[in-house]
Design goal:
Layout: E1 5-8, E2 15-17, H1 21-31, H2 38-51, H3 68-83, H4 89-102, E3 109-111, H5 115-122, E4 127-132, H6 137-144, E5 153-156, H7 157-160, H8 167-177, E6 184-188, H9 191-201, E7 204-207, H10 215-224
Parallel strand pairs: 1-4, 1-6, 4-5, 6-7
Antiparallel strand pairs: 2-3
Helix pairs in contact: 1-2, 2-3, 3-4, 5-10
């Protein structure tokens, strides 16, 4: 049976922050009288991201706050590590609110150059979906970049109640399209969340490693039917995600 549906990761695959996360955090912190170096914040963000497990809720349960509380705790951890002490709650509240809203804006994100041409080509004869460890802000971000029109559905972790590589995320995508795993291909840049998750679900996988393996190559492989066996690409993808903002 030929490939019917493609599942796309979002951050690091379709979109990326306009500027490094550390620089954004430093810029917004300065507005609240908090001085911190962008490189220190970037290092702390990476460490906090790696050390903080994604939210996991019971089956059938979504995040009541759309994972906003998870993000607040992570931002608090980043600044506490850099400053050597926690921010005052009032300062943290104001700073976090501004950061959270900033990353809800399409202008905070840019498309990779190969995204629109690839989606135009693939949407002609395939069903496309987004499968992302993100929250509801992703819908306005994609709409702001005129990408929503390509996708049947946008499956996000805050609504599923689990994050990739958890099987529940991939099952949610399969249920949404009503197809078997062998009929689908997942596209992403993260070795654990995307590659391992797809492999465990029995879904073909295409690794995004620009410039060597971008969406132009994806289109070629799908067009030629060379996607079969792409699960083995798990062995080739780097362990580090392309994006510094993997939500």
């Amino acid at each position: 049976m030929s490939l019917q549906a493609l599942f796309f990761d979002a951050a690091g695959t379709l979109i990326r922050p306009v500027e490094p996360v550390g620089l954004t955090y430093a810029r917004f912190a300065a507005r609240h009288g908090v001085e911190a170096m962008p490189d220190d914040l970037m290092q702390a963000f990476r460490a906090a991201w790696k050390a903080t497990p994604p939210p996991l809720y019971p089956p059938g349960t979504a995040a009541v706050d759309d994972d906003r509380g998870w993000w607040r705790a992570l931002v608090a951890q980043v600044f506490a590590q850099v400053l050597g002490a926690p921010l005052a709650e009032q300062t943290l509240d104001g700073l976090f609110d501004e950061l959270y809203q900033h990353y809800a804006e399409p202008a905070a994100w840019r498309l990779f150059p190969d995204v629109s041409p690839a989606l135009n080509a693939l949407s002609r004869d395939h069903r496309l979906m987004v499968l992302s460890n993100f929250d509801r802000r992703l819908r306005s971000i994609l709409a702001g970049h005129d990408l929503s029109r390509f996708f049947e559905q946008i499956v996000i972790s805050s609504e599923v109640g689990a994050a990739k590589p958890h099987p529940r995320m991939f099952q949610a995508a399969l249920t949404a399209v009503g197809l078997q795993s062998q009929d689908c291909l997942h596209i992403g840049d993260d070795a654990r969340c995307d590659a391992e998750g797809a492999a465990q679900a029995g879904i073909h996988f295409f690794p995004v490693q620009r410039p060597e393996s971008g969406l132009e190559l994806l289109v070629q492989k799908v067009r030629s039917g060379a996607y079969s066996g792409l699960r083995r690409a798990l062995l080739c993808i780097n362990n580090a995600p392309v994006s510094e903002m993997r939500r």
